[in-house]
Amino acid sequence: MKEQISKIKESAIQEIETANDLTQLNDVRVKYLGKKGELTALLRGMKDLSAEERPIIGSLVNDVKEELENLIQKNEEELKKAEINKKLEEEKIDITLPSTKIRRGSKHPVNRIIEELEDLFVSMGYDVCSGPELETDEYCFERLNLPKGHPARDMQDSFYITDEYLLRTQTSAVQARTMVANKEKTPIREITAGKTYRREDDATHSHQFGQIEGLVIDYKENHVSLADLKGTLEVLVRTIIDKNSNLRFRPSYFPFTEPSYEVDVSCFKCGGKGCNLCKQTGWIEVLGCGMVHPNVLKMNGYDPEKFGGFAFGTGLDRLAMFKYGIPDMRYLYANDVRFLKQFDRKDVD
Q1: Is residue 102 part of a domain?
Q2: pTM of whole model > 0.85?
């Protein structure tokens, strides 16, 4: 058996040294050291040996096995190194060639508007608040003076998940949550920006759109008035849209404010003279606002005899369209790099 082991060793060493690639080397490993390999077969045949021969032959087979394993490992490392060198030689990259430029966009125009508005209102002492996009009927409607069956719901009853939960139709729900969460019932000055959802889809409307809403509540002796609301909105419009903008308030109706107003801004394209953008009127509607309705204060834990305030809201997409001259709201959601890459330049201009 010693002679047989010696022949197997010589044969294995010769095949290991002549293996040209990793596949051949692995075949040699399996042939001699695998479960059905020649050395393994010798170990299984030791049961026929005498008790004196078994330890001698076993030790000899293990020594040969270890020697072959070391040799295979050494040759494997050399073959891997040779394979890598061959690839490096054959797959050279000419770094002097011009690279392929990756097409890049820029910060999304709606995000730009959000950041600009948040910076503006934080500088005026407002807190930035947020709330869930999957909202309850209670906070989306009832706590905003829109009970079940109210006709003003018809324009907003949209994406219900259950009878109680829906995708929020307005960020005003965060105002109600903020009032309820303020257990001390102290004054509030907050803004909220985020996504809202309604059944709309055309060039100037989308089933998903962004809104920003502001809320100010203070003690009545501090006399928060419509004049404060107008001044706040003038700062907003002249910062975001045009520094020469004028505002026009038109009486309107919102269930959560009383009195309520639609606010128009003088057309920034024609300066109020009349053009295709403002439909020859000289004015463009931009937002809604009003003094917080006493019922809203009461339902959210504030005493309307002691507190008053104002609220306002506008579309983020609408502001982005005005500021950057975007003709179709759907461009904002198309994920087209050709569209998105231009806004760094526009802000510089």
Answers
A1: no
A2: no
